[in-house]
Amino acid sequence: MNISEKTLKLLWAKSGGKCAFPGCELDLISEDGSVIGENCHIIARKENGARGKEQIDEDEINSEENLILLCRNHHKIVDDFPEKYTVQILRQYKKQHEENIRVKLNRGKPWNVNFSQIYYMNIKRIRMLAAQQGIFLQDEIENNYCLHSLGWELNNLMYKIESLIEGLEISAGQLIDDWRQLKVGQFVTINGNFYTKNVPLASDVCSNKYHATGDLKKDAHLHRRYGSKKCVLTLNPRWLATSTAFVNFKSGRVDVAGFGLITSMDDKKMIVTPYILGVPKCDFDWMNMFNRNSIYQ
Predict the structure, then answer these.
(1) What are the DSSP E strand ranges found in the chain?
(2) Is the whole model's pTM more than 0.85, yes or no?
């Protein structure tokens, strides 16, 4: 009985296409597309094979649980020395390797800061995200109601936040028309043109005159459609950083880039809490240097 195609796909997917022998992790598909990996039986199909005397049902011989993905060298080694590489040892290798692959896939990659100037920084949320990865950010706005009131200190904070975001490992989905692969609690990349709604004046925010009501018809937010569905980015104007940000977020439409967390969604609408938003990068990257060395007010 041959190994089924479904079983092979599952084995290769869970192994990440890499050798499961500890310390190897050789890519088992070469750059030219050649398959150089081998599907090794933990318990052999025949009794005189490696570890073949172990008790196992016949229909389990070619199951995914009885297979471990190895390079050719390590396949030969484990089969030549079955007394050393026992069933228990190989199952442990398989379990640990597949867990390592799962963790790497879920961990994400260092965030690629895809904006040239910061508009919006949700300091509370960013601090929580950083703390989960062992990075602790002091609250530099304890005595200030909003970022815009920081004055000159805003430059230092913006540079610190951008440097922090570049080092965080964030796994984020893409906001596209098909939301079937997205779920509540997932980070998403934000990039595009959004309509603006109910954004107050900077003076009202800094003087504590603005208060959220919990009603999107009254509260500040950005929104746009993806196909037949509406995406809403809820805003706390306290986290709008500059005068330019307030002006652009009151203009009716704004181009933004950044990332946020999906807090709710149904067949018609998705609510996203933005962590950071800014001006999308363009081909004129020399402007970034100007922005970094100029006053953000």
Answers:
(1) 37-41, 67-71, 109-110, 115-121, 169-170, 172-174, 187-197, 221-226, 229-234, 253-265, 269-280
(2) no
